[in-house]
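B., you asked whether I could sanity-check this one before it goes into the benchmark set. Here's the sequence:
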Amino acid sequence: GYLRATRRFRAALIVQTEIGRDRSLQLDLFDDWQPWAVERVTSAVAAGDMRPDVDPAKLVMQLLALWNGLRILAETTGRMADLPGMVADALRFHLASAVVEERRAYLDTFISRYADRIAHDHPA
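And here's what the prediction gave me:
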């Protein structure tokens, strides 16, 4: 009873319901992208660009959830113009510990290029 009476809980329920109705999520794209991304992360671990204890499947699932959550947040708040920067910041934060220190400068360059590309794909 109490939780349902609080505004934050009701808002969370509404958001969950709307996410369930959102046909734009294109979850089939996740199924297509995930094996490819896991393969790339596995290669990066083998090449020594990422720490040897990184679990590629887990990291990819976290990145998918991160990207999709930020996209939903940007759409919900009407701040799609902020999406590229939010994604770039989240990637820098999340991947910094997975990438070996010697490759972090390259990672930052890659993330900046990615942010520029998605800014073009998601204009304000």
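One thing to flag: DSSP finds six helices and no strands in the chain. Otherwise nothing jumped out at me.
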